Amino acid sequence: MISIEEDIQLLIQIVKKDIDILDKRKFLDGAPQNIKVLEKKIQQMDDELAESQKAIDKLDEERRHLEREIGAQTDKIKQKRIESDNINSNEAYKALNKEIEYLEKLVYKEEERVLQILEQAEIKKKEIAVIQEKINSEKGVFLDEKKDIEERMVREEEQLQIIEDEKVRILPHLSGRINGLYSRLLKAKGDSGVANLIGDICQGCYSRMPPQKAHEVRRNNQIMTCEVCGRILVYYQID
Ligand SMILES: [Zn+2]
Predict the structure, then answer these.
(1) Please, which residues bridge with residue 233 across strands?
(2) Cα-based distances in Å from 8 to 18, 186, 222
């Protein structure tokens, strides 16, 4: 025959395990989402860097194309100037000069664009330096955080298993009636069928009870339940 005092001591062990179990489950439930957030932050940095690099590559490509054009057009201008020296017809001379003027304008515009590109590339390079610095200082931190979560997940999973096993071994020691009551309450509440008392406050639902009742609960020698949440009330010091 198990005494009420013994039942209550077992319930204290059980509610401590329930709190641990809940704690670990909460961490394990939230961990994948937390990892995803970190991965997203890392991905964003890498994407930003790649995008800026791509913009610079595009500018470089345009600049090389323009420089080739300028080279070809400059050659053409030289060629046409030589031609114009050997021309006798006034008409042909004018036409040739027009062509030269047109080409010179083109070269001028292209040179202006090259200068623009150099300025834009300079700005992009500064952007890249900023992103690179951010990556250097933050990426490692995020990767470490991710690794920490992953390693903790393994540990918490193992500990959860151990605590659950320990709890399963305690339950049969309870008297039948209390075990039944606890199981029904656990099923209904989801976290635990038992609640500790801190001051006059039930730790299951955080409602306050009359001081006299709290005083009786602290004796741990009768089965009492919270009038608000229905959990079995016990008392132990938080360590
Ligand atoms: Zn309560």
Answers:
(1) 195, 224
(2) 15, 16, 8
CA of residue 228 to ligand 1 center, whole Å = 5
Do 185 and 193 touch, CB atoms closer than 8 A? yes
- Report the DSSP pairing between strands 201-202 and 232-234: unpaired
CA of 201 to the centre of ligand 1 (A): 8
Record: fold of 26-174? Helix Hairpins (1.10.287)
At 214-233, the pLDDT tens digits run 999 999 999 999 999 999 99
Strand partners, 202: 197
All structural domains of the chain with their residue ranges:
26-174, 175-239
Q: Model pTM greater than 0.90?
A: no
C-alpha–C-alpha distance, residues 24 and 18, integer Å? 10
